[in-house]
Amino acid sequence: MGLNLLNPEVQNFINESIDKNLAKLALQKNPFPEVDWILILNQIESKTKSKNKLPNWFTTKNIIYPNKISIEQTSSEKTAFYKAGIVSGESLIDLTGGFGIDDYYFAKNMNTVVHCEINTELSNIVKHNFEQLKTKNISCHSGDSLDILTILNAKWDWIYIDPSRRNDVKGKVFMLKDCLPNVPENLDFLFQYSDSILIKTAPLLDIAAGLTELKNVKTIHIVAVENEVKELLWELQNHYHGKIEIKTVNILKEKKDIFEFILDKNKKSPTYSLPQKYLYEPNSAIMKSGGFDEVGIFYNLNKLHKHSHLYTNSKLIAFPGRVFEIVNSIPYHKNEMKTFLENKQANITTRNFPDTVESIRKKWKIKEGGNQYSFFTTDENDNKIVLICKKIQ
């Protein structure tokens, strides 16, 4: 595990090297010959990556870090805190423990948490770190988690799984059956040990595809941080066959924007209109959810077009996404473009529009940035239009 790394002088050196140029550092002579220089450099790189993502780990003394890939793949503390709010009860077993961020937060809500990790070295690192973090209700087990589940032979309130994608299927479509452990294949086995299963997947997984592979899905959480979707969470309940709830969450600095709806084939139809005074663009979690009609209906907004996923109304409302005041709505014609946008500065977004942002910028010599926002889209009459806006929210 590299206990020499805990030497106070080595730790001071690591802390003083945060955010420094790693390539330059690597060329220096190792000031600690008794410690592998590569190990020290790895600690610097991984700890630097943890600064914003894992502030509790970053500020705790004598934390040992795994390689940077483990840090990049692990949950952030923000998403782990959200996850912990989903589970309740006495006990949880995590079949894919990794660096242990999720388990640290699960342990705040559960009496007993078991961290399973197939990599023995990583398991030892995590056990050491939990001691530094003064977390006493997590036990660490190294080995194949399905074997551990059988050996412990207990009934758990929750099973948590974050399956990893196998390297040999890198080029293929992301399917759960291509991950380790293979959750779809082992679901019946897992339900023997718990009636509640929480699965984390990457945003890359298509929701419709996930639903074809899984059964007994009760709720799907789509979790974004600062408008970037970070993970999908699938709540499975043994014997559940009811309607599926979709919960979208965008975690912002000061608040969480939450929008929920039920997955229903017999949903209401949205209303449409030409652009009015205000324009609404849903956040990335809602966009990932596919709840394009549901969000418009819930907030009593009109869609611009079936495939544009932009909304409008005449009265300003609070909305989970970006909100703009429409200053001008122009047809996408040469004369109007020359008058309003050519050789000017604007932030450009395209929605249901044939040209890319890059080609629009090049064609009309539009500089990036500034306070003007231009949406190139299609209206309900299938006309190509440009909405010139100023941002409100």
In short:
This protein has helices spanning 8-16, 22-26, 37-53, 55-59, 68-73, 77-84, 101-109, 120-132, 145-152, 183-191, 207-213, 284-289, 292-298, 334-340, 357-364, and strands at residues 91-94, 112-117, 138-142, 158-161, 164-165, 179-180, 196-201, 217-225, 228-237, 244-251, 256-263, 271-272, 278-282, 302-303, 311-313, 321-331, 347-350, 372-378, 384-391. With 393 residues, the protein is an alpha/beta fold.
Question: What are the defining features of this structure?
Answer:
15 helices, nine-stranded mixed sheet, Rossmann fold, 32% helix, 393 residues, alpha/beta, globular
Number of helices: 15
Based on the coordinates given, report the CATH architecture of the largest domain: 3-Layer(aba) Sandwich
What would the principal axes of the Cα set say about the shape?
Answer: globular
Query: How many extended strands?
Result: 19
CATH topology of the largest domain: Rossmann fold
Cα(first) to Cα(last) distance is 48 Å
Which strand order spans the largest sheet, edge to edge or round the barrel? 3-2-1-4-7-9-8-10-11
Radius of gyration: 25 Å
Average pLDDT, all residues: 94
- The class by helix and strand makeup works out as alpha/beta
Number of domains: 3
CATH homologous superfamily title of the largest domain: Vaccinia Virus protein VP39
Low-confidence stretches: none
Hey, roughly how much beta strand do the residues contain?
25-35%
CATH class of the largest domain: Alpha Beta
Tell me about the biggest sheet?
9 strands, mixed
